[in-house]
UniProtKB/TrEMBL annotation:
It comes from the Bacteria. Signal peptide: none annotated. InterPro entries: NAD(P)-bd_dom_sf (IPR036291), SDR_DHRS6-like (IPR051122), SDR_fam (IPR002347). Coiled coil: none annotated. The keyword Transmembrane helix does not apply. GO terms for molecular function: oxidoreductase activity. Pfam families: adh_short, adh_short_C2. This is NAD(P)-dependent dehydrogenase (Short-subunit alcohol dehydrogenase family). Keywords: Oxidoreductase. Belongs to the short-chain dehydrogenases/reductases (SDR) family.
């Protein structure tokens, strides 16, 4: 077995969302693993990157320009950008799904054989399999403004824009996996439970302390940015070269407990509220 089991040394990778939180932790770890790391975000990253490119995921022209600015062949794409529900719903679905998808699809012609893509979804998207007709209709729309209009027309039906975007990431990941593997490209995503980053405060404004505390109960604390970054690095590594189309919960067992009925989220929320 190779000593460099993850295989990042000398690889050329792109991290979208490298300014802070999980994206920053991911970029920093990749640099330490010997990768040539190119970052993109709306704010510069504190990580010592090979290059940084400012990209606004709400703007298709900026996305195309960002890909052109970085240029060259790429071995791995990490999608770690996102907005919480405190932003307008149309912006949430644009950044969290439409922009991420456009950025990724724009890179596909530039990916080397054996390349991999990973995106950060969320446990907020865990019901994606129960809403497939709606989600397949949504992800079939590639034009940004048409997709935003679709959301405006169905805002009441689709509900929380954050959950919609994350369900769309999950669906798109699994829909694209069979085709991309034929091109020797893998695609996966992770579904984190709440992460102890600055964005947690924004989620608290929307969900409240009791809900967030309930989602942290499995391990008794929130995950760290590093604990969420490492699974991303694993999924895009040589060690995961037979893994594709996976939506991986990174939540200390919470999703499994909820799916099997071992955990009752309403009871957990009530207990967290009572303990507050």
């Amino acid at each position: 077995m190779a000593s460099d089991i993850l295989g990042y040394k000398g690889k050329r990778v792109v991290v979208m969302g490298c300014f802070s939180g999980t994206g920053e932790a991911c970029a920093r770890a990749l640099v330490d693993l010997g990768a040539e790391v190119h970052g993109a975000d709306i704010k510069p990253s504190p990580v010592n990157l090979a290059s940084f490119t400012e990209v606004d995921l709400k703007n298709p022209d900026a996305i195309a320009a960002g890909i052109a600015a970085i240029g060259g062949r790429i071995d791995a794409v990490f999608n770690v950008s996102g907005l919480p529900q405190t932003f307008p719903g149309e912006d949430v679905i644009t950044v969290n799904f439409l922009g991420i998808r456009a950025w990724t699809e724009g890179w596909i012609p530039h990916l080397n054989p054996g390349a991999a893509i990973v995106s950060v979804s969320s446990l907020g998207g865990m019901k994606w399999l129960t809403r497939q007709p709606l989600l397949r209709e949504f992800i079939a729309i590639t034009d940004f403004e048409a997709a935003r209009q679709w959301y405006r027309d169905r805002a009441e039906e689709v509900g929380d824009p954050y959950s919609l975007a994350k369900e769309a990431i999950n669906t798109w990941t699994q829909v694209r996996a069979p085709d991309l593997i034929g091109q020797d490209i893998r695609i996966n995503c992770t579904m984190p439970s709440p992460i102890d980053t600055p964005m947690l405060g924004e989620f608290r404004k929307v969900a409240g302390d009791a809900v967030l505390s309930a989602f942290a109960r499995a391990k008794g604390r929130y995950s760290t940015a590093e604990e969420q970054a490492l699974p991303l690095i694993l999924l895009n590594s040589d060690a995961a070269r037979f893994i594709s189309g996976v939506c991986l919960p990174v939540d200390a067992g919470l999703a499994g407990g909820l799916a099997t009925g071992v955990l009752d989220i309403q009871k957990m929320i009530a207990e967290a509220a009572a303990a507050a």
